[in-house]
Amino acid sequence: MVTQTYSGNDFMSETTPQLHIRDLQKTYGDNKVLRGLNVDIQAGEKIAIIGPSGSGKSTLLRILMTLEAPNGGRVMVDGESVWTMNANGQEKKADEAHMRRMRSKLGMVFQHFFLFPHLSVRQNLTLAPKLVNNVSGTVADDTALELLQMVGMEAKADAFPAQLSGGQKQRVAIARALAMQPEIMLFDEVTSALDPELVHEVLSVLRTLAKKSDMTMLLVTHEMNFAREIADRVLFFDGGVILEEGPPSQIFTQPKEPRTQEFLKTVL
Ligand code: ADP
Ligand code: MG
User: Where is the ABC transporter domain (predicted)?
Assistant: First the structure.
């Protein structure tokens, strides 16, 4: 089999990747959404995921976040399988404690924010750390304020989501995901639902995170200039596989695959 990973070189085989994805399959009825997806991602890498609508980008992130189960293949985080597969490669339910532990390594931010509408900004950030991680109220509050400062939202700590603009909601959603201290952050088109004039404030937060934190970041994005600026590696999704991948300098200027060339023509 031809490996799809450009990272499948000698250096990679010496280190355990933080994320190891092999032959990942996902079907909805007759619709094969992921058709044997392979990729290895090292701790700290900033990965931009691009590709046409329906190519399986969100499905991959949802599987990584354990919001969906794959139909076959393997996902390993820090060398440990997330899903347990039976003999024919079908996913079996792993025990709840295992899933929770694996899930806690990741955080996800969605296109449509999903803030808790009945909680203040501060409470949005402190709820899960207190409930899930047993963090004390004082510590959770301190962390929340630090994160709100980082995303420029400390002045709105006591506001409610309905009082915020889309850009502000998204910055709070990013801070909320960070409050759980994930190793890996997944961002699914987090600027796509925003009015154009609000996109930059969210990109600016992401840019700071990408440059200053050593977290692993996977960003599905249509912002090609942004991807080019912050990504170590770009994955081009097409038809449920990674059709091409490489550093932004190569993918954006000398894509090899005709499908990548076609796609970039429509978005650049
Ligand atoms: P992308 O994020 O690249 O646009 P998605 O991963 O959202 O693509 O979707 C890939 C395909 O899977 C699409 O054809 C979509 O209609 C289908 N799909 C996604 N989620 C579901 C679901 N819950 N039920 C049925 N089909 C789905
Ligand atoms: Mg999507």
Answer: 19-264
Ligand 1 atom at minimal distance to the Cα of residue 188: 2
List the structure tokens of 81.
């399988």
Q: What is the pLDDT of residues 56-73, one digit of tens each?
A: 999 999 999 999 999 999
Q: Is the dihedral of CA 236, 40, 45, 92 positive or negative?
A: positive
> What Rg, from alpha-carbon coordinates, does the chain have?
19
pTM over 0.95: no
Q: Which atom of ligand 1 is nearest to the CA of 59?
A: 6
**What residue's CA is closest to ligand 1, atom 11?**
54
Ligand nearest to the CA of 111: 2
Q: How many CB atoms within 10 Å of residue 253?
A: 9
Phi and psi for 189 in degrees, rounded to 5?
A: 50, 55
Q: What is the ipTM of this complex?
A: 0.98
Nearest CA to ligand 1 atom 18: 28
